User: Fold these one by one.
Assistant:
Number 1:
Amino acid sequence: MMDFTPEQIERYSRHILLQDVGVEGQEKISNGKVLVIGAGGLGAPVLLYLAAAGVGVIGVIDGDTVDLSNLQRQVIHFTPDVGKPKVISAKEKIRQINPDVKVIAHHDLFTSENAFELIRDYDFIVDGTDTFPVKFLINDACVIAGKPFSHGGILRFDGQTMTHLPQTACYRCVFHSPPPPNAVPACSQAGVLGAIAGMLGTIQAAEVLKFLTGTGELLADRLLSFNAKTMNFRTVKLHKNRQCPVCGEHPVITELKEAEQTACDLKQR
Amino acid sequence: MAKITLNDEAQEVTLPLSLTELIKANSATPEMVSAQLNGEFVAREQYDAIAIREGDEVDILYFMGGGQSS
Ligand SMILES: [Zn+2]
């Protein structure tokens, strides 16, 4: 048993009161190690809620600095943070929310070179990135290394997310390979309603906490999508695709290659 | 006319209809979606060859990036 201090018991009391979490569940959260890739629209709410929940170790990787146009939705960054590396800004907020959390910040890009090294020590990975090549890279790294992860994507008024566990459908089971460059607009071109990032990111954070505590049914073999204009939520049942290039019967992807497209042109300002 | 279910909603379509035509009729681009027919993923190269039948359940799933800095 982990010895919670009276202060921690009070801090986490609303988790401890929850029948499905309790002291044991909070211990699992406090012993959890989660890597969040991207400290932007999705990463921001994920990081805030995981910090508040007291996840023991939170890793965060992002190569960007805070831009004024980020503040409309990337709620972990504040106006005085403009120009600061996102991971530093995020780390400062996490520290203030919850000093129990150990933060490991990487001001870097997630690449085929560092992927395995980065994910190795974590129990769960969260994809909060915005480019398809990196989403596929995260998928392939996690599938090959046998790591569970949460995929998330947002665009305009829509969001979608799925959770991959070893043996359940992966992102490539659904989307075989990245779309042609520039075929799908990025938020910089198409825009996104700020709160959508919060809706999707908090769903991802909830999945992490469910995973760590072993509570409920994860979005494994299911793809959740919603449209905020209608507020219709839809869950599509998935199962492993036998022809999946990374987890299928005859995988052709057995090692990581550099992202198939190095940068999304639409991202360039 | 044939009754099918597209993304959980009942729809009436005129046969013959290929999966490609169904995707286009729903203002999507075949290269930019993933499709499940009766719970099985269909390879994109087969969209043209798949004939929609009465009672089919089709899911069209869209690529969604977004989230970090864009
Ligand atoms: Zn797969």
Number 2:
Amino acid sequence: MASPDDGNVIVPDSGEAAVKVINLVKTFDNGSVTALDRVSFTVPKGQLLVIIGLSGSGKSTLLRHLNRLHLPTEGSVEVLGQDVPALTRPELRILRRNIGFVFQQFNIVGRVTCIENVLSGALGRIRGPRIGAMMYPKWLRVEAFEQLDRVGLADRAWQRTDTLSGGQQQRVAIARSLMQKPKIVLADEPVASLDPEISGQVMDLLVQCCIEDEITVLCSLHQVDLALGWAHRLIGLRDGKVVLDSPVDESLDHNRVMDVYRELDPTGAKRDEYVSSDIDPIS
Amino acid sequence: MSALDTSDQRTQRNRNGTESDFSDQVSRPWTLQRAQIWSVVVLVVVAFVWSIRRVGLSFSGIAEIIEGWPATWRLLGRMVPPFIPSEDWDVVTSAAFDTFFMAFAGTALGLVLGIPLGLLSARNVMPWAPVRGLAKLAIVFSRAIPALVFAIFFVRIYGIGVLPGVIAIGIHSIGMIGKLTADAAEDIDPGPREGVASTGAGPMQDLSTGVWSQMVPTVITISLYRLELDFRSAPILGWVGAGGIGVLLRAYQGSLRYQEMLGVTLLIVVLVIVLEALSALTRHALLGTTERLSGKVKQSKSNRLGSGLASPGTKIADWIIDRSKQRATLRNQLSPRRLTPPWTTERVKVNTVGLIFSALLVLSLIIPDIGADEVITGSGNIPEMLRRLTPNDWSWFTDRIVSDLIDTLGIGISATGLALLFAIPFSFLAASNTAPGRFVYLCSRSFMLLVRCAPELVVAVIFVAAIGPGPRAGSLALAIAMFGFITKLFADAIEEARQGIRDGVTSTGSTRLQESTTAVLPQVITSKISNSMYLLDVAVRNSAVVGIVGGGGIGFLVINASRQLEWETLGGIIFCIFLVVYAIELLATWVRRKVT
Ligand SMILES: Nc1ncnc2c1ncn2[C@@H]1O[C@H](COP(=O)(O)OP(=O)(O)O)[C@@H](O)[C@H]1O
Ligand SMILES: [Mg+2]
């Protein structure tokens, strides 16, 4: 496990695996679209892994399998030692509680206060529905404030979330994930809808918080240079296949990284984010 | 609309190409969609002509009506000046209060029952299709049966008084509230829900944090909108014994005191305007201007329906708000670590509104004097009543029912048609961007406001008094009420038409009329058709009840069967009304989907 105070540990390979994916295949629309093609990799605990690849290469689909927002067509997905597709609903709830998910579209509720969005990260720990921040116990509100403080937004706690800027909204979303006290954070292009300056700041914040809390991070990113700054390891996807899997050190050739982005499929229209129709919500 | 796009492109091409190349293309090809649209148009015209004949308004007879006007005027003349005798003021005030609280409690009941039903019928909330189907059935039924019919039924169960009115309003409100709630739920952004699901939330938590928190503004809009509608329908319920101001209306009509009748009617109109202004103010306090005007809120399915029919009170409320400038919120002076929400003006407003509404709810249970034992003994009879209402055979089904149902359809269609005939030109006068002058605009708008605030059935009462009972009175009364609604919808649509396109047409040197037909009409036509279909739907619902106050159609048989305690007949007729209204609703929905 990576020790939080030792910045020199680059690729921690000790300890058990946080995520283990074997021969994962995912097809959509009755097999006409292959989003993931026999993907296999293992992520040890504490690793900061970045997944790169063109739009439509399967990054989102891959991450969404890890907390069962998608079910695999074939292959196995093991997270924190549990066979994800086989989990019962209560078990899935417990697993999801341990996995924070940061979305490109933030996926926070715009019209409620920031603190309420952060508090919703604690839903997995408490029972029963909540409407309004005041329905959460006081100790959770204190905790939510601490998380908001970490992302630098404590003074905005009672402000409506949609009155914040994009970068601030994503920081609220990060605070919500941290509120879960997760062991793993999955971040799906967390800064793709932010401008470059803010992107750097938000990524720094996310990584810093995760290192402090000893959280394993799987993050998909477009900006390779952003990734090279702090990632332990890079995985490159192209058309649903793993085409690069390398630790980030001197041996990593910049050209090999850029190769992931080259060889453009001339017909491959860039596709935007899907609002999936086959998510597997708990309800 | 795609059909319009293609026609634009075609004109473009014609202008560029030489004529011979395109001579075979200058008329628009017949596509399936175009054929459908035209057959619907023909059908609509035929239906309109037929309906006018059916209700006894024959086109040649329009002259006859004009000739008959002196007689009508004389009758109307007996209504002016309206007044309410001072010795009746006590009764009138207490009846007005009863009506208010009846509507209020009824809406509350409708919300309590309708919102859960709506959620149960939303596809993304309730995964089990059978449950959704049942919930939808209840919603459709309660929407199709007018409140007045429910009132007749519940007066038989609970006896004369406010209680049956409350329940009738509540049960009828379930339908609309349920439907709009379901639409709102299906409209929500799935993203935040995924976010909530990813934290490991359970189904109820998903519902509250992922779904409900996104729906709150829409639900507030729906509730206030329903409250406004119930304020309009409540005054007439007294006609069948359900308490409130309608009792007085009936009494005055019975004793031919027409001036008092008009006096009470005007009082109702004033009350409706005031209440709608209050409701608009409430909406402002809760949602603020930004939220109401933001594109996102306007786009949602449920709001499209609501926003079209925005209350006349809104303008007044806007004016009041303009005058009292809002104070800046406190949010920037907070100490960062408060564990309770700060008292911003928004929170103060929301809490005040909440308090007022809770107080009103308590009052509405106290003031109209509804006893718990009354509720309990009455409700015990419901199963027995329902059993009696269920027909065992077809003996209740007479030719009279068929012919009255057809009359009902005739009233609905002719009323919508007549209203449209007058509304289409008039709406251009009532839209600020097409009206010939500020004065005309203001006059038209205030005229519309007045017309719209008179509840349909109250207008029908006046018309029956003025030109005698029968489908003619019902049709004309409904036409006037519909005219108010339609003109408002159309005028608003015209005001939303894009100025740029109009400039484009004007710069070709067109006249004002050409500009209206070429630049404005194509932009608003789809929303016009869609709104007209919605209004046909409303008109047919209402035409089923104008008969209760003497306006022709099936309503007479309803009240008759209830008076003579012919339960099976009543049940059978209610079922027939349901079928007809539901069929029209399906048709209206189909056409609306075709044109948009
Ligand atoms: N819900 C879905 N239905 C159908 N196809 C999908 C769906 N989600 C993703 N895909 C397809 O899967 C492929 C990978 O998509 P995605 O994982 O979103 O890529 P990325 O996140 O790398 O941009 C794309 O070709 C996309 O068309
Ligand atoms: Mg993606």
Number 3:
Amino acid sequence: MRRLRTASERNKLTQNIGFTGLRLAALITVVPIVLVVVYIFWQGSPAISWEFISGFPREGMRAGGILPAIVGTFWLTLGTGIIAVPLGIGAAIYLAEYAPDTNWTRAIRIAIINLAGIPSVVYGLFGLGLFVLFLQFGTSIVAGSLTLAIMTLPVIISTTEEALRAVPNSFRVVSISLGGSKWQTIRRVVIPQALPGILTGVILGLERAAGETAPILFTVAAFFLPRLPTSIFDATMALPYHLFVISTQVPGMPVQIQYGTAVVLLTFVLSMNTVAAVIRSRARARRQW
Amino acid sequence: MVSSAEARQHSSLPQEIKNKIVIEELSVGYSDGTESLRDVSLAIPDHAITVLFGPAGGGKSTLLRTMNRLNDLADVISLSGHVWIDGVDILDPSVDVISLRRRVGIVFTQPVVLPMTIRQNLTYGLELAGERSRSRLEEAVEQSLRAAALWEEVSDRLDDPAIALSGGQQQRLCLARVLALEPEVILLDEPTSGLDPISTGKVEASLQELKEHYTFVLVPHSVQQAARTADYAAFILDGQLIEYAPGKQIFTNPQDQRTEDYVEGRFG
Ligand SMILES: Nc1ncnc2c1ncn2[C@@H]1O[C@H](COP(=O)(O)OP(=O)(O)OP(=O)(O)O)[C@@H](O)[C@H]1O
Ligand SMILES: [Mg+2]
């Protein structure tokens, strides 16, 4: 190898090696994601038709559509959002802006972090015990939404808290020096600045809720219920559980329908992601510090 | 309790001048153990520029932030003494700090524009105070920008993000933002430290023009600026008030050796 003459040449080489390594690392993480998405869409898109999306399952789910599962997942995600979003954001605002740094609030934070690590099937059991049986909601959309909401809360709380803490403190001081109250400062300066981060957390949390099987298994999901729910106390089919059922529980299931269902679930989640990305980039374009 | 008349005797100011702020035996200590101010007594007259100057870390900013209770946000562990504004001790826990801060505005060393448009920066405080009238807000925007010598430069782009302004313009926007609230007292903490001489000149000229309506307390960024702007000047060293006198006197004929050393640049 030619001897490198100057320090700057050596630096450049190190830099190039570094950048190549980083690019490679980025590529390696992207490849599997792309492969999964491409493979599922390739296998599943032939099954997608108007009937598949808007029809009811027939012939023991081996034909027809998956409308009840789509509608069920929609209501569950909405219900989870209605419960978890205000609660989670409220808790995060309290923790980030108001709570004094005491052992008590530190314990709350540790509890939240640990909640995020609990396996989802445990949430399912908890929901079964508390909402379905003890509170007698039955296997229902309320019970499922509440269970999913509890599972989602830690995600929403910790991302929102982080987003609030990322807002420079000098903004708060300036707002207060101009005669702003604490709440006015939070509402008019801090939250608008943190909004992209908050939305990211909310959508990440709701996406996870939309895609989870275990928490809804005992609390809401129906194996086969070819009608739409009419009240929040109805059980319902839901996409992730339906996918599990048709992949493992029904013999002679056409592969196309399995992948078709996966395509619908993936589209649901990816479109939430896209909405989040759009909102984020719009907000970032407006962000000014 | 010591009366404000008694406190006035601590200063060498003539009695007939109306004092807007009377500080009495003020001591402030932070939680890290620094005793930033010790027994400072000072009477600040209305309609004048009072300059607080001295070496770094002397407690000038601490003194400013005490005057509108902004130090409530900092880790202050010990606070004693009184700060009378128009005869009311604003350190009293029952004082409404929000209306106090509307009456006593502050401009910081680092200009921090809020992440909004120029116009929104100016109307922010007024809107928080409940002002809804479009025309009055518009009027405040123009008046405050003119007063801060910024109107010519920004009048055609009021709805641009404030962060797009130059550093000097941002600092004048911060001054305008405080002026828009029409406070009675304006505290200025090295408001021109990041400005070029021309912008500095503009700000100083604005202050001279505005002082008949306000009480200014200014921490200058240099002794030269102190000498140029001071109607009254207080030399603060290591948390203590060393000398307080009309500006002409303190910069030409200081009474204390330490003041003289500092003014003549013989200090650390
Ligand atoms: N928020 C704070 N927490 C703890 N200590 C502080 C705080 N603010 C200031 N101090 C301390 O108080 C002392 C006085 O600081 P202050 O900022 O009032 O001085 P200053 O005269 O404004 O200095 P400078 O000219 O550098 O701005 C310093 O020792 C400083 O470290
Ligand atoms: Mg200072």
